[in-house]
Amino acid sequence: MVCKAIADLQRTVALLEQQALKDIPSQVTKADAEGVRFAAKGLRSQRERLGLSAANYGKLVGVSGQTVYNWEGEISRPRKQQLATIAAVRSMSKKEAQARLEITGLGTRKKPK
User: pTM for this structure?
Assistant: First the structure.
């Protein structure tokens, strides 16, 4: 009986973890992207301010780390929906960004010494 309850809780936690990162893009609309300007240099400084690798920043906005590098290198530009998500991440603190990544288990964990 206890094992079944634990298994049910583990499934619930797993679902919540998966949903945590999906929350940012789902709360953002294309209308939110209106008036949002994009600058590759600004994206890099935002990512560095949050203390995130390109891969982890990409996880927050729903793209790959390589895509983030392409944006920063001005090889490509984000789409309107991605701009809206980037704008939503701008208001995050360093702790909040790390917490979102850790909740989902996607963040980098420090290895114990």
Answer: 0.65
- Surface-to-core class of residue 80, CB atoms within 10 Å of its CB (0-12 exposed, 13-18 middle, 19+ buried): middle
Containing structural domain, residue 48 = 2-104
Q: How many domains does the chain have?
A: 1
pLDDT digits (tens, 9 = 90+) for 44-76: 999 999 999 999 999 988 899 999 999 999 999
DSSP state, 110? P
User: How many Å apart are CA 55 and CA 57, to the nearest integer?
Assistant: 6
- For residues 54 and 87, what is the distance between their CA atoms, to the nearest angstrom? 16
CATH number at residue 55: 1.10.260.40
Express each pLDDT in 83-94 by its tens digit. Answer: 888 888 888 899
Q: Could you give the CA distance from residue 72 to residue 75 in angstroms, rounded to a whole number?
A: 8
| Domain contains 45 | yes
